[in-house]
Amino acid sequence: MIGWEDVYKVVVAMVPLYVALILGYGSVKWWHVFTPEQCEAINRFVCFFTLPLFTFEFTAHVDPFKMNYLFIGADAISKFIIVVVLALWAKCSNKGSYCWSITSFSLSTLTNALVVGVPLMKAMYGPMGVDLVVQSSVVQAIIWLTFLLFVLEFRRTGTDFSASTRAVGDSQVISVEAGAAGKDLEGNEAINVASPSTRGPSFWSLMKMVWLKLAMNPNSYACMVGLTWAFIANRWHFKMPSIMEESILIMSKAGTGTAMFSMGKSTIYHHHHIYEKVIACGTSLTVFGMVLRFIAGPAAMAIGAIAVGLHDDVLRVAIIQAALPQSITSFIFAKEYGLHADVLSTAVIFGMIVSLPLLVAYYAILEFLH
């Protein structure tokens, strides 16, 4: 049974993150240290350096031969359920959209498993709980964050191409119409002349562009390289050389801290505008995010866990870890790709505030049902 001492351990793990958050907030709001351009540079530093090394560091130390594949299967089923529901919502509902489906996927599936999950699961279920939450972190980094990167890059590549072709098409229309008085063309004919070069790329050429961009993003392969090392190290009992270990640690240790700092400043600067409130996305979107994070995610996980036959403490760990606070990495990606970063930052900040009582409540309810 979780006690006050265990709750205190979780609080101790979370408070340093809020220190970094407040420093980031104060650096812009109170002390005016950074300009919007400098804030963007900090975000890119986090996205392309500290987070990839942080991901590699914890992935490289997992034992892939001792993973609970039923637990991983339950997680995959829960994610599949959410993807199907969001796809149907985007396709069939007037209020649905591709962009909001991406953000809703992040809000309902991606968790801060290491920072909050490890101390919490250790207090609730001991080493078994810690082992499972680390496994979920590895799978999230390898599969689901890579999937998120792919759809974000796909969206940006398609948007950039559309914007560039519209610009080219507009210039062609203007030039053709300007000469129409001498070649004797009507306006409609001018548009028809210009329209062939506004045609979009094929699906496969767009996919090729996306994969090329992903290949240049260290977040895409940091987890894959880490897992490859984990397989080799555990199969043949290799140990990472200390000089390599320390070189990775010196940057990876800054991963969560710099991410929280970046989030703190981003509550002030977002798309080069100043916000005077921490809840940048508004109350209704905040409630929407909390419902997805703490209700929809655990509900989908419960369905997946029951479907594969999980029971006892493993079932309870599966449900509770799905209700952990929002992934910090999901905010960093949202900020980098310019998609609802205010919603994700609010989900991370307030998610961590309300998560402790909610997670303890989940624990008590599941223990009572048991």
UniProtKB/TrEMBL annotation:
It is found in: Membrane. It is a multi-pass membrane protein. One of its GO terms (molecular function) is auxin efflux transmembrane transporter activity. GO terms for cellular component: endoplasmic reticulum; plasma membrane. Signal peptide: none annotated. The keyword Ribosomal protein does not apply. InterPro entries: Auxin_eff_plant, Auxin_Efflux_Carrier, Mem_transp_PIN-like. The chain crosses the membrane at residues 7-28, 69-90, 97-120, 132-152, 285-308, 346-365. It comes from the Eukaryota. The keyword Membrane applies. GO terms for biological process: auxin polar transport; auxin-activated signaling pathway. Keywords: Auxin signaling pathway, Membrane, Transmembrane, Transmembrane helix, Transport. May act as a component of the auxin efflux carrier. Belongs to the auxin efflux carrier (TC 2.A.69.1) family. This is Auxin efflux carrier component. It comes from Nyssa sinensis.
